[in-house]
Design a protein that fits this description.
This protein has 389 residues and is an alpha/beta fold. The protein is built from eleven helices and nine strands. The strands form two sheets. A seven-stranded mixed sheet has the order 3-2-1-4-5-9-8, sandwiched between helices. Strands 6-7 form a two-stranded antiparallel ribbon. Strand 2, helix 6 and strand 3 form a beta-alpha-beta unit. Helix 1 crosses helix 2 (41-77), helix 5 (105-125) packs across helix 11 (330-345) and helix 10 packs across helix 11. The N and C termini lie far apart (75 Å).
Length: 389
């Protein structure tokens, strides 16, 4: 006997999922109707009105969810402990080359772009005999790009295993660059005041429990007129939703680079928790903070560091469907993403929406206080020293 088959409720897409699939098509049709030359004025008006309604509803949902997620992540960050932080970065974090093996060629290609940008900026300000400090030097990928320079490079890293790997690399090369490596905490640099001409900190500040302490130390060891080069995660990165349906979210992100209060979703922690001990069921969350340009710029200014340039890089986001598609296309995908990167960095407004923030500052002033004052950074540990004990 024949029976009618209906999918179970769990197999059916939800009404919201269906709406999200249909919305981009509907938005494209509305936009085409509104912009079509022969469209009647009343039809054009209705199409624009429907688009604005769609964008408004989508943005309301996006903003409510973003604010809620940001508050939750900031609260989760309070679980971090200095002991867990220390163990994780001394025992669990692989070298960048080991991560390249995991990520594959496409993501290695994208990741190395940041070191090219940093090294290019360092080269632009170097003078013969300049002293360079690389805070969180990792596998010395910045030094790799400066080997022909008549300068002295000092790399410091929190985790000792990273330093061992970096030292082996530098010993294997015959080069002009003189170098030295050591283990140090970014918040307690073992150098005298005004001892470096250039300080680099690439993809480090987002991992720190109290980033303001590191900024204060960098300002202390940088000579007057010296240059600080930093890259980090960008809280204004391009939304994963198409602007056809989430135009207002795109506008928020672009404007939010200079207006921190506009940013709905600002990640604070790694998505995966870390065990308090290797065998512990108790979990904590460690920082993976996305920075807002204006907010970080203000922190720099309080440390006597004047931001002279900022930009963003890495388009599209590595977690996007577009990046996954490009990754599957090998060399052609890497050539295509380089073109996307070039166009995005030259397109007004869009160029603020890269996944990573690139900032260059000059030491022009002095610290507003011997130690970072309350409120200079909005993190949960900014008014407490306890986490660093």
């Amino acid at each position: 006997m024949a029976t009618n088959h209906h999918p179970s409720p769990s197999a059916r897409p939800s009404a919201r999922a269906l709406a999200e699939r249909v919305a981009p098509v509907a938005a494209a049709l509305m936009l085409a109707s509104a912009l079509r030359c022969r469209t009647r004025p009343i039809t054009r008006l209705v199409s624009f009105g429907a688009l604005i309604a769609l964008w408004t509803v989508a943005y309301g949902r996006y903003r409510r969810g973003g604010i809620s997620s940001t508050a939750r992540e900031r609260e989760l960050l309070k679980s971090a402990t200095w002991e867990t932080f220390t163990r994780h970065y001394n025992e669990d974090v692989p070298t960048i080359e080991e991560e390249f093996d995991i990520w594959g060629a496409y993501h290695q290609h994208r990741h190395e772009m940041r070191y090219d940008l940093v090294a290019e900026q360092v080269r632009a300000v170097l003078r013969p005999g300049s002293r360079i400090l690389d805070v969180g030097c990792g596998s010395v990928l910045v030094a790799d790009r400066l080997l022909d320079q008549n300068a002295f490079y000092v790399g410091v890293e929190f985790g000792g295993h990273q330093l061992k790997y970096g030292a082996e690399k530098l010993r294997e090369n015959h080069h002009r660059l003189r170098s030295g490596l050591g283990q140090a905490d970014a918040a307690r640099l073992p150098f005298t005041d005004e001892s470096f001409d250039v300080v680099v900190m690439s993809e480090v500040i987002e991992h720190l429990l109290r980033p303001e302490d590191a900024v204060w130390e960098i300002a202390r060891v940088l000579r007057p007129g010296g240059t600080f080069v930093m890259t980090t995660n960008n809280a204004s990165e391009v939304p994963l939703r198409t602007p056809l349906t989430h135009l207002f979210a795109w506008i928020e992100k672009g404007l939010g680079a200079n207006r921190p209060e506009l940013i709905s979703y600002r990640p604070w922690v790694w998505p995966e928790p870390i065990g308090v001990t290797k065998d512990s069921s108790e979990k904590v969350y460690l920082p993976h903070t996305h920075h807002i340009q204006a907010e970080t710029r203000a922190m720099f200014a309080a440390a006597g560091l004047e931001t002279v340039h900022w930009s963003t890089f890495e388009f599209p986001p590595p977690q996007s469907a577009t990046a996954a598609w490009l990754d599957r296309h090998g060399d052609a995908g890497r050539r295509a993403v380089d073109l996307i990167e070039s166009v995005a960095q030259r397109t007004p407004f869009v160029r603020r929406l890269g996944c990573h923030l690139f900032m260059v500052a000059t030491k022009t002033g002095t610290l507003v206080a011997p130690s970072p004052p309350a409120g200079v950074w909005p993190g949960p540990f900014s008014e407490s020293e306890a986490v660093n004990q």
